Amino acid sequence: MSDRAFEFIRLNQRPGKPRDRGITEIRGPYYTPMGKRYLEDILETVGPYVDSLKFAAGSFALMPRAAVKEITDLAHRYDVTVSTGGFIERVLTLGPELVGPYIQECRELGFDIIEVSSGFVTLPTDDWLRLVEQVRRAGLRAKPEVGIQFGAGGASTAEALEAEGTRDVDWAIAQARRFLEAGAPLIMIESEGITESVKAWRTDAPAKIINAVGLEHVMFEAADPEVFSWYVKNYGPEVNLFVDHSQIVQLETLRSGLWGTQSLWGRVVTYKGCRPTSAHPPRRGDRTPCGWVPLPTVRHCAGPGRMTRRRRLGHRAPGATCYDRAWPPGSRRPAGGGARRESPPCAEGGRSGATRCDTPGHPCQDVPHSGASHGDRAHARP
Questions:
Q1: CB 380 within 8 A of CB 327
Q2: Torsions phi, psi of 330, nearest 5?
Q3: Contact 29/18 with Cβ under 8 angstroms?
Q4: Closest by alpha carbon to 141, among 74, 84, 57?
Q5: On the chain, which terminus has fewer CB atoms closer than 10 Å, C or N?
Q6: Where are the alpha helices (DSSP H) in the chain?
Q7: How far is CA 323 from the centre of its chain?
Q8: Per-residue model confidence (pLDDT) at position 197
Q9: Which of 339, 313, 329, 321 lies closest to 379 in space, CA to CA?
Q10: The pLDDT of residue 67
């Protein structure tokens, strides 16, 4: 965000959209109704930090078609992709013949991503892969969801899910690998059974999944401040997370290092090297997060009996003596000129101390001259 208020407050460097890591997906209509005016308020203020918008639990099926299209069009104007929730498993229970019309309706209404999940149904892996391929053939992206908890996705109590039992983490990893091999770019990891509706968090599960498939290939459900703070603390600000739309500001203050809880305050940092982050690259003499942008060394040549102007590379006065002149960044040329520093001797023809600009290999030949005249114009910013 180039016009951010308080721009002098330094934040962690974040890649621009479309991002392939540090992705934030927010929940749209479900717990709170959301129309285009509500969504526009969010995107006008924090749109640069939102990567994707999800319609949870088939909420789009309750809304007028025109209202859904207005929301998807608005999201696209802010470079935000639009995803369904895992509603396709509900469609499967109504009959396999409805899968095609469901995918086609998603495409016509402007959805970019269809989440493919089976939290409530038992689906063979090959059938799951067949759904992923059908979504891809329609020109949309498939986002499979895997987890270790059967019956996930319905806000069930911890006791009810405990009675259902959990799957082995290695099974979830094997599923994720097959989906990635089938062309799915990102895998959603269901929170239930790991950090949601459990008596004790299964922190071993995210670690095993990340180690097996890579942090950049998974997105974790984390719609609770305590949960997404834990992910940022343990896996850094570039972990991909799904949160409620009401939590986007709190999450981004953690990612950016702007604010945080007691265990994260001032401790979340990134290092991207010394590269300009502004839309306007820094000029010579400016101060940046990486330090001063140095002014170029100015080489002046004095010919026999007179001082020549700065010359372009290749225009050297025979017999001229050269020296360097430079000024500190942000300052003007001092009265009377800069400090004189003699060039290294060239020892041409066996004579020590001979400094000639036409001598091959002399430092004067290696300095790129801009052609500006000697004086203040030599130090004008580009």
A1: no
A2: 85, 0
A3: no
A4: 84
A5: C
A6: 36-46, 65-77, 88-94, 99-108, 125-137, 158-164, 169-181, 204-213, 225-235, 248-256
A7: 46
A8: 84
A9: 329
A10: 97
The type of residue at 342 is E
Task: Say how far apart CA 242 and CA 259 lie, in whole Å.
Answer: 20
Structure tokens that stand for 354 in this block: 């001979």
Closest by CA to 369, choosing from 327, 318, 315, is 315
Strands (E), the chain: 24-27, 52-55, 81-84, 113-116, 141-146, 187-189, 218-221, 240-244, 287-288, 291-292, 298-303, 306-307, 321-325, 341-342
Residues of the chain with pLDDT under 50: 305-317, 326-331, 333-359, 362-382
Q: What is the DSSP pairing of strand 141-146 with strand 187-189?
A: parallel
pLDDT digits (tens, 9 = 90+) for 68-94: 999 999 999 999 999 999 999 999 999
Q: What is the largest CA-CA distance in the chain?
A: 98
**Strand ranges across the sheet with 298-303:** 306-307, 298-303, 321-325, 341-342
Residue whose C-alpha is closest to residue 143's, from 111, 167, 110: 111
The tokens for 317 are: 């006065």
pLDDT in tens, 305-333: 444 444 444 444 455 555 555 444 444 54
Question: Which sign does the torsion angle of CA 223, 228, 230, 235 carry?
Answer: positive
